[in-house]
Amino acid sequence: MDFHQKHEPKSFATCAPTYDINALREYLESENRKSIYLLSGPTGLGKTTTARILGNWLAQGKSVQIIERNMANENTIENVRDVIADFKERTIVADVRVFILDEPQRIKATTQDVLFKALDTLPEDIYVIFCTTDPQNLKSTLRHRTHEVNFHPLNNKEQAALLKKITEKEGFTIGGITNTSEKILSKHDANQSILFSEGSIRKLFDNIHTLVTGGTLTPVAIEQVTITLVTAIRKGSWKQVHVAVKGVTDHEVTRQKTCYALSKMMSQADDEQLPRYAHALGCMIGLIIDPDPENTLMFKAFGAWSHINGMSTWLEKS
């Protein structure tokens, strides 16, 4: 089972305090609660998880079907019309249907109007929950139609409590020197895990998983530059790759960025793409021992770019 799924909360009581849980509960107990909700805040704070919990609560013990759609990728008028058609469709699968629509702000303003009109005529057995990182880009007419719940990053104390809870579930104790075979996590690694998470539940889970499986944490600053490099290589733009690595001189940062970037890309590749990413990672791996990281990164990034895009193999032996 995926580490996140393994520790994903199943009720409001077990959710991390990234939102006012008591206020939401009080609202849900009120007589005039709405059928449309907006969960807003930065990524990685448990909005989608909370939406699933909320969906099950709204069913009030009846059978429920939860349908999740990523509107960041399905933001055309045709996609929205498909969603609206699903609202109207009658089904015997469940008594209640809950639609979780992620990133609705990516829908064009005129298309949001179409969705807004459909929300006014929702059947009684339909609930809609929007999850967004950018609520200000939702039209006010659509936003005001919802009950909004705002999410915020965890503070250090809250992160520490969550870390302790998850590590204990994994059978680890905190103290001494990190030793995965003996299930010990050092206080230093625990503190670094919190520092590098920046209040994000998702990042904290990633960091805990890395540590309990014997991995090494990657500082946030390196991850951010890595994301830029991954995006540049994926788009196949040599100019963007050049910008992503410009001015990099620290050997360790360079090595982690490049290898981490290609490893991340390989983890998301399909069977057909995988050999290209493997070749690209081979191009990059020389940075581990190379004495001139900036210039070598430029050269090997170009080699990786060539392999990924199937444009050249002449750099394979570099």
Fold and architecture overview:
This protein is α/β, with parallel strands linked by helices and 318 residues long. It has three domains: 3-150, Rossmann fold; 156-212, no CATH class; 221-308. It is built from 14 helices and seven strands. The strands form two sheets. A five-stranded parallel beta sheet has the order 2-3-4-1-5, covered by helices on one side. Strands 6-7 form a two-stranded parallel sheet. Strand 2, helix 4 and strand 3 form a beta-alpha-beta unit. Helix 13 (274-284) packs antiparallel against helix 14 (293-308). The longest helix is centred in the last third of the chain and has 17 residues, at 251-267. It is globular, with a radius of gyration of 23 Å. The two termini are 39 Å apart. The relative contact order is 0.09.
Give a nutshell description of this structure.
With 318 residues, the chain is α/β, with parallel strands linked by helices.
The CATH topology of the largest domain is Rossmann fold
Give the overall shape. Answer: globular
* Unreliable stretches: 312-318
Number of continuous helical runs: 14
What Rg is obtained from the alpha carbons, in whole angstroms? Answer: 23 Å
Secondary-structure element order, as H and E?
HHEHEHEHEHEHEEHHHHHHH
Tally of discrete structural domains: 3
List the main descriptive attributes of the protein structure presented here.
single chain; 318 residues; alpha/beta; Rossmann fold; 5-stranded parallel β-sheet; two-stranded parallel sheet; 7 strands
Q: What order do the helices and strands come in, and which of them pair?
A:
Layout: H1 3-6, H2 21-28, E1 36-40, H3 47-58, E2 64-70, H4 77-88, E3 96-102, H5 109-119, E4 126-132, H6 140-143, E5 147-150, H7 156-169, E6 173-174, E7 184-185, H8 187-197, H9 201-212, H10 220-235, H11 238-245, H12 251-267, H13 274-284, H14 293-308
Parallel strand pairs: 1-4, 1-5, 2-3, 3-4, 6-7
Helix pairs in contact: 4-5, 7-8, 7-9, 8-9, 10-11, 10-12, 11-14, 12-13, 12-14, 13-14
